[in-house]
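REVIEWER CHECKLIST
Item 1: Sequence provided? yes
Item 2: Single chain? yes
Item 3: Sequence as submitted:
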Amino acid sequence: MIEGRAVGEFEANCFLFICDETKKAAIIDPGGDGAMIYQWVLDKGVEVEYILLTHGHIDHIMAVDELRDLLGAKVAIHTADAEMLTNPKYNQSIYIGFPFAFRPADILLNDGDIITVGKETIKVIATPGHSLGGVSFLTREGVFSGDTLFAGSIGRTDLRGGSYEQLIRSVEEKLFVLPAVTRVFPGHMEATTIGREKAVNPFFF
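Item 4: Structure as written out by the authors:
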């Protein structure tokens, strides 16, 4: 089961990925509103094992330490974005007037890693371009694309570690090879599908 809510000042999408059989769960991109996310977890009656980060920008990590402490979950981020948790300059928070540094990740991810949540699996797909260590998380219910691919758009590439060319390659070589029916759960705005984005996303034709 996948549920999503927009959180924080920048209304980034935070997702709760649940194994229905075991009630184990993962939180993906807790970008703020930690108390609300915590209550959401309590209301669902699930045990959160992991806090998974598609990348390290502040609008996707703001509630990381709060929820890590409340839930006892392990925080995971790609190796190339690891410093973004601990450096306010890298996670961009210094530029919005509120520099935040968080504790280091418990798990460093790499392309192809498999995370087990109850009886469900999540595959790590490296999709750099928005950041050096941007990843997407593939599950049997769809792919969480972070700020790599949006409905009708792509993530910005003008921040540290960004590359337009690399982001385009990531989408074309890592995401557009997935079945057309694959649902896409992006870091901002509404969900879409791989087929729809291949057909209408203006950045790819």
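Item 5: Key structural point noted by reviewer: The chain has six helices and 14 strands.
Item 6: Recommendation: ____
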